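Design job #97: recover the sequence.
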């Protein structure tokens, strides 16, 4: 894989595909958070395995995370909050804590593209395919997928790596992404990150 000398080899710097983790670093301390945790925790375990395979193949991982209205915070402080405090989302944060060579983008609203640097990061990487995972499927994942589709990016949204408050809401969101946004919603176990950075069936 081509590396940018300015990064001193710390992170992949050219990749047709990236793995995006949406709002997985989340304290879930809000109404409905307990319900969301029940579906998000099994999804997080599958995302962990998917992330491991992405790293092995040299595919970049981008955390796209809400700032939860903490305008004086940063991603590192949000991670520390979710790992060190007794919050509902701690088990997920422990599973999915970022590696040193992962990318991150803080977002103020639902879509990972709205008022963020995500466009610039994807352009820098040369990415044309996004594997979207995270929570909530019917909210931030759906909004991000919609904006990605409008940018002519190809979408893979593994159905078992997306969680919403209810199964019904999750199924509906996945159906919308598949039918309207042309997303591939195959299971994460069917995704193989090949060395040429393309997904094979």
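Job complete. Output follows.
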């Amino acid at each position: 894989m081509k590396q940018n000398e300015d990064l001193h080899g710390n992170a992949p710097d050219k990749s047709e595909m990236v793995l995006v983790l949406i709002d997985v670093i989340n304290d879930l301390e809000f109404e409905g958070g307990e319900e969301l945790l029940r579906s998000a925790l099994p999804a997080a375990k599958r995302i962990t395995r998917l992330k491991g395979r992405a790293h092995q193949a040299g595919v970049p991982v981008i955390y796209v995370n809400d700032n939860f209205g903490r305008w004086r915070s940063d991603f590192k402080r949000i991670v520390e909050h979710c790992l060190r405090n007794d919050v509902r989302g701690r088990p997920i944060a422990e599973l999915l804590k970022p590696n040193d060579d992962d990318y991150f983008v803080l977002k103020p609203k639902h879509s990972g593209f709205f008022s963020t640097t995500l466009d610039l990061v994807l352009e820098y990487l040369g990415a044309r395919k996004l594997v979207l995972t995270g929570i909530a499927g019917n909210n931030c994942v759906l909004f991000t997928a919609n904006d990605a589709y409008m940018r002519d990016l190809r979408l893979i949204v593994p159905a078992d790596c997306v969680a919403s408050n209810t199964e019904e809401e999750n199924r509906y969101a996945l159906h919308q992404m598949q039918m309207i946004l042309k997303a591939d919603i195959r299971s994460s176990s069917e995704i193989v990150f090949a060395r040429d950075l393309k997904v094979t069936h």
